Fold this protein.
Amino acid sequence: DTAVSQTPKYLVTQMGNDKSIKCEQNLGHDTMYWYKQDSKKFLKIMFSYNNKELIINETVPNRFSPKSPDKAHLNLHINSLELGDSAVYFCASSRWGRSSYEQYFGPGTRLTVT
Amino acid sequence: QKEVEQNSGPLSVPEGAIASLNCTYSDRGSQSFFWYRQYSGKSPELIMSIYSNGDKEDGRFTAQLNKASQYVSLLIRDSQPSDSATYLCAVYGNKLVFGAGTILRVKS
């Protein structure tokens, strides 16, 4: 009964490759997010989707492309991987609206680019 | 100026003491404030949320908010070694912005 799940948990790949990370939530939330946590542990938002619609797109290279097939899923595809993309990527979800912005995080995907 | 600032620590407290974690933010329009706990190698876990000025208590945790001073704090009473983690302050204006986190070490 995992709330927010991500696959894979670990991803090791070479520069120039293309990879995808998948995220699913079973909380009934309609907003999902991708965050990047770098080696200094700083957690920063990349994208946010509300009911399959992109609502936040931070200054992220266009090699990163999120896709939301439905409101329970948000995937992240990364083209032409670079060394600087090495980080932990977290998916999160929340309800939408003034009443609550509490976000719940998945277990993370540790991406290592060699 | 960083949007959300926290002392990186580490903050070391003896077991049973009160741990006090502080956070300041720059966006006066911020509406919602959160504390997350992150153990090494794990994901952030929401432990407290606070939306209005004053104190909010939940078990051993108390969150305090002062919007005029743009200041949020988290008090952990009767600190336990299991509380040793990084505590992330997060502030919501039009998106959730995290501080860099404060490392807390509780020594038995």
